Amino acid sequence: MTPSLIALAFLAALALGGGLGVVISRNVVYAALFLLVSLGAVAGLYLLLLTEFLALVQVLIYGGAVVIVIVFALMLTRLQDFAKTRDHHQWPLGLAAALAVLGLLAATFVVFQPAVHPLQSTGIQELGNELFVRWALPFEIASLVLLVALIGALIISRADRGE
Amino acid sequence: MEDYLRQYGLLFLFTGVAIGIPASMLLVSRMAQLARMRPHKPSPVKAQLYECGMETIGGRWNQFNIRYYFYALLFLVFDVEAVFLYPWAVHFKKLGLFALVEMFVFLAILVIGFVYAWRKRALEWR
Q: Chain B partners of A132 at a C-beta cutoff of 8 Å?
C-alpha cells in the first residue's frame, strides 16, 4: 500500500460517509454539515489527482460559499416546514434513482473501458493560457451568468415587499 | 510526486490536529464522567437556551430575515468571480494586454450588476 492509495481510500470513505450522512440525518443542519465533510473530502481527492487549482475552487466555492448559502436558506425557513420532510415517503424513489445512476455509471465504465493515463499535473499557468486565450468568449459569458445570478438574488430578496 | 504528497501530508496533519484537540477535550470529559471523577447533575435550568446571559425570546429555530440570503448569494457571486482572478493574476505578465482587457470586461459586467443593486437600494438595511 502506497501512501497515496491509503489517502485515496480514506478520502473516498470520508466522501461516501459524508454523503450517507446527508441522506440519513434527521436534522437538516447536520445534513448541511455532513455535506461540508463530503465536499471537503472531494477537494482532497482533487489534490490526489494533482489538480491543485480544482481543489482550491472546491474548497472556496463549494466548501465555503455553497454551504453558506444552504445554511442561510435553512435559517430562512421555519421548523414546522420540515415536519413533512421527516417522514420518508420518498425513500424508495430516491433509492431507485440512486441505484439507476450507480448502474449507469458502472455500465459506462465497463462498456467503454476508459484509458488510464499516468497522472500529470496541470499547472495554473497552462490553465490561465487556455482560459484567457482559447476560451476567452466562454469566460466572458461566465460573467454574464454571474450577473444573472446577482440580479436574480436581488429580485428574490425584494419579492416579499411586493415591489 | 513525493514532495507533493509530503507538502499536502503536512496540511492533512494540521487538519488532524485541529480536529483532534477539541475532540480530545470532549473525550476526556466523557471519560472523567465514566470514571466518576466528574459530577453529573443535569437540571432543566442547565439545559435552558441562553444568549449572552439573557432569556431568549422565541424558540431555538428563528426565522431569519430574507435579506441575509441576498448577502449570501452576493458572496457566492463574488466568490466565483475571485476564483477566476487567480489564474489571471499568477500569469499576469505573460498573458499580456488582451487578457487584461478581457478581465476588465469580465469585471465591468459584474460591476453593472453591483451598481444596479446599489441603485435599487438593495444594499441598504431598512
A: 87-88, 95, 98-99, 102-103
Whole-model pTM? 0.80
Q: Is residue A92 part of a domain?
A: no
Count the domains in chain B. Answer: 1
Partner-chain residue, chosen from A65, A72, A154, that has the shortest CB–CB distance to B117? A154
Domain final residue, candidates A48, A80, A112: A80
Question: Can you tell me the ipTM of this complex?
Answer: 0.77
Question: Nearest residue on chain A to B75, judged by CA atoms?
Answer: A65
User: Is residue A87 in some structural domain?
Assistant: no
DSSP A134: I
**CATH assignment at residue B81:** 1.20.58
B112 → chain A, closest CA residue: A147
- How would residue A96 be classed by pLDDT, with cut points 50, 70 and 90? very high
Residue that is last in its domain, among A60, A80, A100: A80
Task: Residue B85: name the closest of B109, B108, B115, B107 by CA.
Answer: B107
Enumerate residues 6+ apart whose C-beta is below 8 A from B82.
Answer: A60
